[in-house]
C-alpha cells in the first residue's frame, strides 16, 4: 500500500487506518511512536549519536551504503518504533534489503511494523477494535514497545500524545467511521479465537445468552476457545468472578448457537455456570452479564430488550430480540437458571437503557457506616482500587466501613477494601443515621480506643461505668 498524506503525521494516520486500525487504535499507536521517535523514521536514539559519532541522517546513509556494518548488534534504538533488540533490528534490515528500501524509509518501516504487530495477536486485535485511545496506547506500551519505564505517568503521557492525534484526525469528514464498531469497554481480558467468521454478514440486533457449563473465569473461557480443536466460540465470556472476556470481536460472527443466521445477527455471551441442572451462575457473573448486555445494547442501537420465551418469534426482532441455544439444538443451554431469568435480565437491562445514566453511588455517610453486601463474591482488596491485589471475598452480609477513599471502603476488620459505588454489589445502609447517633458512635469508639490502650480489663471497666451511671 502506498502511504499518502500531506505530512508525516497524516501519512502515518492514513496508512494505519487503511490497514484496519480503528481511529482510537491508530491514535494510540501513533502516540507511542511519537514518544519513541518523534515520528521520525530516521531517528537514532539520542544517547547513541555521540557514542557512535553519527547524526540521524549520517547513520541512515552509512547503514544503507554498507559503510556501517554493526546496525544489528549496536543496541541503538532506531526508527519510528525505536527498534533496539538485535533480532528485531535484523528483521528490519532484512526487510529493507529485500524490498530495496532505505533503512530510514517511512513506508518500509510502517509495512514492517504492521507485520510485527500482526505477530502480537492480542495487541493487533485491540488496535483493530479499540474504542478509546487509552486502551490502545496502554497495550502498545506494555506489550509491543515495552520500554524500561511503563509507570502510570508514562501511560498517561503516551495516551495524551495519542489523544492529540485522535482529536486532529478522527471524526473528520475524510474519515468513514460509520461502520466501525467497537467492543465493550467493560472487557477485562482479551484472547481472540480463530473460531469465527470475519466479518459477520448481518447487523447486530439480537442477544443470545449461553451457559458455559463450568465455573470458569473469563480468561479460562477465552483461553479455551482460543485453543480448542472443537469449532466453537462466543463473542464474550462472563466469568464466575464477574470478569468479562472478549473471544470474538463484535464485528465477527461467533460459532456459538448451532445456527449461522442467529450468530450472524446476535452477540453471543457464554456465562460461567454450574455443571449440572439448573446450571446456576454466581451473583457476580449475573451482575456483570447485566452490565455487559446493557453496554452492548447501547453501542449497537438496541433500544429495548424483548423476551417472550416464544421460539416461533425467531428473527422477528421487533417482537423478541433475545434467543436461546435450546431453540436451535437439542441442548439445555442456557440452563434453566438463566432461561427462567431472561425476563428479569431484559427488565434490568431496559432499566439501565431507559435511564440513560450510570447508576453509581458517589456520596457516602460519614464513617463509620454499614453496608449490606448483596452478592456472594465481592472481592476485597489490599488497597482502595482495582490495581490492588484481591485478598478474598466477603460473602453476603452487613459490614462496617471505617474509611472511604475514591469510592472504596475499608472494612472494619482490617481485611481489606471493597468497592462501594456499584449498587448491584452493595447497599449503603445508614444514610439516615442522625447526628446524635453519629456522636454516640464516635464516643463509643473513643472510649473503646482508650480502654484498649489503657491495658485495663475492658469488661470490668464497662461494668463499673454502668454502675456509676445507674
Ligand atoms: Zn449454548
From TrEMBL:
UniProt cross-references to Pfam families, sorted A to Z: Amidase_2, Phage_lysozyme2
EC number(s) from the headed UniProt entry: 3.5.1.28
Keyword presence, Ion transport: no
Entry protein name: N-acetylmuramoyl-L-alanine amidase
Keywords per UniProt: Cell wall biogenesis/degradation, Hydrolase
Biological process per Gene Ontology, one example term: peptidoglycan turnover
Reactions that this protein is recorded to catalyse: Hydrolyzes the link between N-acetylmuramoyl residues and L-amino acid residues in certain cell-wall glycopeptides
Xref: SUPFAM superfamilies: N-acetylmuramoyl-L-alanine amidase-like (SSF55846)
Coiled coil segments of this chain: none
PANTHER family in alphabetical order: N-ACETYLMURAMOYL-L-ALANINE AMIDASE AMID
InterPro entries the UniProt entry points to: Amidase/PGRP_sf, Amidase_domain, NAMLAA_amidase_2, Phage_lysozyme2
Residues in N-acetylmuramoyl-L-alanine amidase domain copies: 192-335
Amino acid at each position: 500500500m502506498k502511504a499518502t498524506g500531506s505530512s508525516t503525521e497524516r501519512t502515518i494516520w492514513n496508512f494505519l487506518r487503511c490497514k484496519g486500525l480503528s481511529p482510537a487504535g491508530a491514535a494510540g499507536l501513533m502516540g507511542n511512536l511519537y514518544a519513541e521517535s518523534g515520528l521520525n523514521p530516521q531517528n537514532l536514539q539520542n544517547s547513541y549519536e555521540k557514542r557512535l559519532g553519527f547524526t540521524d541522517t549520517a547513520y541512515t546513509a552509512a547503514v544503507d551504503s554498507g559503510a556501517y556494518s554493526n546496525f544489528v548488534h549496536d543496541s541503538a534504538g532506531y526508527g519510528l518504533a525505536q527498534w533496539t533488540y538485535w533480532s528485531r533490528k535484523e528483521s528490519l534490515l532484512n526487510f529493507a534489503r529485500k524490498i530495496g528500501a532505505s533503512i530510514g524509509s517511512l513506508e518500509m518501516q510502517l509495512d514492517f511494523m504492521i507485520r510485527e504487530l500482526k505477530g502480537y495477536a492480542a495487541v493487533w486485535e485491540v488496535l483493530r477494535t479499540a474504542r478509546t485511545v487509552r486502551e490502545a496506547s496502554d497495550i502498545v506500551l506494555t506489550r509491543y514497545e515495552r520500554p524500561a519505564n511503563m509507570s502510570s505517568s508514562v501511560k498517561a503521557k503516551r495516551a495524551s500524545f495519542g489523544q492529540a492525534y485522535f482529536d486532529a484526525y478522527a471524526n473528520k469528514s475524510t474519515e468513514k467511521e460509520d461502520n466501525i464498531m467497537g467492543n465493550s469497554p467493560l472487557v477485562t481480558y482479551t484472547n481472540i479465537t480463530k473460531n469465527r467468521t470475519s466479518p459477520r454478514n448481518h447487523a447486530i440486533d439480537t442477544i443470545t445468552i449461553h451457559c458455559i457449563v463450568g465455573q470458569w473465569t473469563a480468561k479460562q473461557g477465552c483461553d479455551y476457545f482460543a485453543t480448542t480443536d472443537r469449532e466453537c466460540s462466543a463473542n464474550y465470556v462472563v466469568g464466575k468472578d464477574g470478569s468479562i472476556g472478549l473471544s470474538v470481536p463484535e464485528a465477527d460472527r461467533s460459532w456459538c448457537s448451532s445456527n449461522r443466521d442467529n450468530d450472524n445477527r446476535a452477540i453471543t455471551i457464554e456465562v460461567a455456570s454450574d455443571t449440572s441442572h439448573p446450571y446456576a451462575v454466581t451473583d457476580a457473573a449475573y451482575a456483570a452479564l447485566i452490565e455487559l448486555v446493557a453496554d452492548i445494547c447501547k453501542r449497537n442501537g438496541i433500544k429495548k430488550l424483548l423476551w417472550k420465551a416464544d421460539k416461533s418469534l425467531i428473527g422477528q426482532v421487533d417482537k423478541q430480540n433475545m434467543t436461546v441455544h435450546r431453540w436451535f439444538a437439542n441442548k439445555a443451554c442456557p440452563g434453566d437458571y438463566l432461561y427462567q431469568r431472561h425476563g428479569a435480565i431484559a427488565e434490568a437491562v431496559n432499566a439501565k437503557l431507559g435511564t440513560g445514566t450510570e447508576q453509581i453511588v458517589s456520596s457516602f455517610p460519614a464513617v463509620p457506616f454499614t453496608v449490606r453486601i448483596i452478592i456472594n463474591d465481592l472481592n476485597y482488596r489490599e488497597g482502595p482500587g482495582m490495581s490492588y491485589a484481591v485478598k478474598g471475598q466477603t460473602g453476603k452480609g452487613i459490614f462496617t466501613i471505617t474509611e472511604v477513599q475514591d469510592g472504596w471502603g475499608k472494612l472494619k476488620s482490617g481485611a481489606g477494601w471493597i468497592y462501594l459505588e456499584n449498587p448491584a454489589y452493595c447497599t449503603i445502609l445508614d444514610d439516615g443515621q442522625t447526628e446524635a447517633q453519629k456522636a454516640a458512635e464516635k464516643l463509643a469508639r473513643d472510649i473503646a480506643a482508650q480502654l484498649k490502650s489503657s491495658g485495663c480489663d475492658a469488661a470490668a471497666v464497662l461494668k463499673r461505668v454502668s454502675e456509676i451511671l445507674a
